Amino acid sequence: MRRAIAAWALASCLGATGCGSKTGLGLPAEARDSGPRLDAAGRDATVLPDTGTDAPRLDSGPDACAPVVVALQVTPTVLLLIDQSASMDAPAGGGRTRWTLVRDVLIGSGGLVPGLERRVRFGLSLYSARSRDGDDGGPPIGMCPLLTTVPPALDNLDSIRTVYSSAVPIEDTPTGDAIDETLARFTPFFDETLGPTILVLATDGEPDRCEQLDPQNGQDEAVSAARRAFASGIRTFVINLGEDLVSRRHLQDMANAGLGHRPGEPDAPFWEASSTAGLRSALDAIVRTEVACTPVLTRAIVPERACSGTVTLNGRPLPCDDPDGWRATDPTHLQLLGAACRELTDVPGSTLEARFPCEALAR
Fold it and tell me: DSSP H helical segments within 3-97, as ranges?
């Protein structure tokens, strides 16, 4: 099979101290000498010659390694599901409303999408509905949910900004219906071979139901929709934008359902962010640390022995189990943290390498 070398790649060394001394990472000389080639969008375009194996192998011999395990760069898909209800027009401080706060942090100068659009496939779904009887509830006017969407893609800032910049808050909050409809619309664009897909829900109110808009009695429906998303392989991360407007019980139920936590397990995290700094911190924790900085290993390791390995970023060793270094989150995932994560996502052409002794590999 043919295999693309990511702009940053992990290799776990399966041999002794001299492992890799003959051929570096076990890659063909032409790939090692020239380094990764980037396409016009800055993405890696280097391809290994076809060896007929699933992973490149080192030379045979008494000091040679077993097959080198390569973890390809993860290109996550992040679906931004943004509450477009009337309450998003409420003040958020600094002369902003909740609506403009979220928009600016996502697509403004220095925002999440401009900073990561070359590494993350961003999609957008703005959701609301209009009730025939206003605050008294009743059936919706027209479609429910009302969705304005931009399909996920790399380098998607211009398309998202065109749609988002002209949108304004509408009325209601049919969260469960919006989750289901968003995933239905975007299904043709999902590609699990590229990396994980997650949903980031930013809302400031209790959910409605399209069957009856107001009072806000759509909690069970929203939780069920998050469960269905998780069952289909899509995790939902929840950000609450309005202080004391959404019950903590519902936020916790949504977080647990969205991340697949079962009864009796520790509660999943959710975020409460009513300021620019709080929202930036929440989005960094979700999109950078949880997704973009969590590459996948193609061979399992023993997490408790992971620190016996060496992880280098741009040629510099990183500390293990350090807030600005790396850790093993489970047998097949490493996670870069803090300054290391920011460097990986923000510095073009960053390279990441990991080597583990044999005793750190799962048998």
Answer: 29-34
- 3-state secondary structure (DSSP) of residue 107: helix
Instruction: Judge whether residue 35 has pLDDT over 80.
Output: no
Question: What are 166-202's pLDDT values in tens digits?
Answer: 999 999 999 999 999 999 999 999 987 788 899 999 9
pTM: 0.75
Sign of CA dihedral 96, 100, 102, 103: negative
* Other C-beta atoms lying within 10 Å of the C-beta of residue 251: 17
What's phi and psi for 44, nearest 5 deg? -70, 135
Which of the four pLDDT bands, split at 50, 70 and 90, describes residue 45? very low
pLDDT attached to residue 323: 95
Same domain? For 237 and 118 the reply is: yes
C-alpha distance from residue 171 to each of 117, 132, 220, 259 (Å):
30, 11, 20, 28
Under DSSP, is residue 291 helix (H, G, I), strand (E, B) or coil? helix
Same-domain status, 277 and 305? no
Number of separate domains in the chain = 2
Say if residue 252 is in the same domain as residue 237: yes
* CB distance 203 to 102 below 8 Å: no
pLDDT above 90: percentage of residues in the chain: 52
Last residue of a domain, one of 250, 266, 292: 292
Give the up-direction half-sphere exposure of residue 189: CA atoms within 13 A in the CB hemisphere.
21
Asked if 242 contacts 195 with a C-beta cutoff of 8 angstroms, the reply is no
Q: How far apart are CA 271 and CA 47, in angstroms?
A: 40
